[in-house]
Amino acid sequence: MTFTLHRSPQAAIGPLGTWVKLGSVETVEIMAYAGFDFVVIDMEHSPLGLPQVYTHIVTALSNGVAPLVRVPDHGPATIQRVLDSGAAGILAPHVDSVEDARRVAAATRFPPYGTRGSGGTSRAARWGLLGREEYLRVGNEEVLCVVQLESEEAVRAAPDILAVPGVSGAFVGAADLALESGLAAGSEELKVLSGQARKAADACGKPIGWAVGADPEAARTAYRNGFDFVVLGNDLSMLAERARSLVADSRG
Question: Mutual orientation of helices 76-84 and 98-108 as an angle, nearest 10°?
Answer without folding.
Answer: 40
